[in-house]
Specification:
Layout lengths: L2 H7 L13 H26 L14 H8 L7 E3 L5 H7 L3 H8 L32 H16 L5 E6 L6 H12 L4 E7 L2 E2 L2 E2 L20 E5 L3 H16 L5 E6 L17 H8 L3 H11 L5 H24 L5 H5 L6
Parallel strand pairs: 1-2, 2-3, 3-7, 6-7
Antiparallel strand pairs: 4-5
Length: 338
């Protein structure tokens, strides 16, 4: 949907901006979060039908984190997402069709059908392609921020990190470098409670991962990652601070991965009571309640948005499913081995 179409659906009321967000902004955040959930559920369905190649990694429960944080960026800014940040791609400007083509391995996709998953970047919207060894992206994001500082371009980089990534050496080296060089980068830890099957209690002894930021002389902030408005508010502060030349910040988003590590994983290692606790904090439901209480969006208009999203997702996947896969000789072009 266009911004104009979303604005038309907003119920006109005496709305007081929340965290600097207008009524239209709040509805836009809902649109992107619901779009992400709908798109990903379709991926899960395709996986079970055998239409996907490789793993499928969903961000169910992380929508408020990826969407809320990325919504703070300007067009010129840099996004370094992980495999659970499809919503961040959409907010930054990636099309549904391009994403569908990529994930279904089609020749028209961003990587020409030669790479599965969310490894694609997009130079036009300043999105960096993800490296599967996620810790390696910390230095890449720092490098992009360093280039911004050298060129005085005013760009800020946001990089999403998993809680498991915070346990490896790249994390400490990258944050130390970013702090020493006073780089315009904001690191966001998506703490979804489990690094694959390893619970937080077996990963770190401190109360919060964000406490580690103090050792690098940068702000470390813990935020409720199921609340998109709070996620936006805290990230906006960190982005504006970085843009002023005051250096990096580390934000720890407390959220939950509501599915397995990937779709082949049943997540039996997660106690049922834990899962139920977080199900009550579904980020989309939280925003729905906000919109209702604020008098911004009626149930009828929200259903209209949901129906439009279903239509947009359907069209994107219809196109991608009919698109050709790369031919044999073509698939080898640009692929290197040592």
């Amino acid at each position: 949907m266009t911004q104009a179409e979303l604005s038309e659906l907003v119920k006109r009321s005496e709305f007081t901006p929340v965290a600097g967000l207008s009524a239209e902004d709040c509805v836009t955040l809902y649109y992107y979060m619901q779009l992400t959930r709908t798109f990903e559920m379709r991926l899960a369905s395709f996986y079970r039908q055998g239409k996907m190649v490789g793993g499928v990694y969903l961000g169910t429960g992380n929508e408020a984190t990826s969407v809320g944080a990325t919504y703070t960026l300007e067009d010129r800014d840099i996004l370094a997402p992980t495999h659970r940040d499809i919503g961040a791609h959409f907010v930054k400007g990636e099309s549904l069709r391009a994403m569908a083509l990529q994930l279904l391995g089609r020749a028209e996709g961003p990587t020409g059908g030669k790479d599965n998953g969310l490894h694609q970047g997009n130079k036009e919207i300043n999105t960096l392609g993800m490296i599967s060894h996620l810790g390696a992206m910390i230095s890449v994001a720092a490098g992009a921020a360093l280039a911004s500082k050298i060129k005085k371009s005013g760009q800020v980089a946001i990089h999403f990190i998993g809680d498991g990534t915070s346990s490896i050496g790249d994390f400490h080296e990258g944050l130390n470098f970013a702090s020493v060089m006073e780089l315009p980068v904001v690191y966001i830890i998506e703490n979804n409670q489990y690094a694959y099957s390893t619970p937080n209690s077996k990963q770190y002894a401190c109360d919060w991962i964000a406490q580690r930021a103090h050792g690098f002389d940068m702000p470390g902030i813990v935020v409720d990652g199921t609340d998109v408005v709070e996620m936006y508010r805290v990230t906006k502060w960190a982005v504006e601070r970085a843009r002023r030349g005051e250096g990096p910040a580390l934000i720890e988003s407390q959220t939950m991965r509501m599915r397995g590590h990937s779709e082949h994983d049943s997540a039996d290692y997660v106690p049922q009571k834990v899962m139920e606790k977080w199900e009550d904090k579904d980020p989309i439901d939280i925003l729905k309640n906000y919109l209702r209480d604020w008098g911004v969006l009626t149930d009828v208009t929200r259903e209209q948005i949901d129906e439009q999203i279903e239509s947009e997702v359907e069209k994107a996947f219809e196109y991608a499913l009919d698109a050709p896969v790369p031919e044999g000789p073509e698939a080898a072009n640009g692929v290197y081995a040592r």
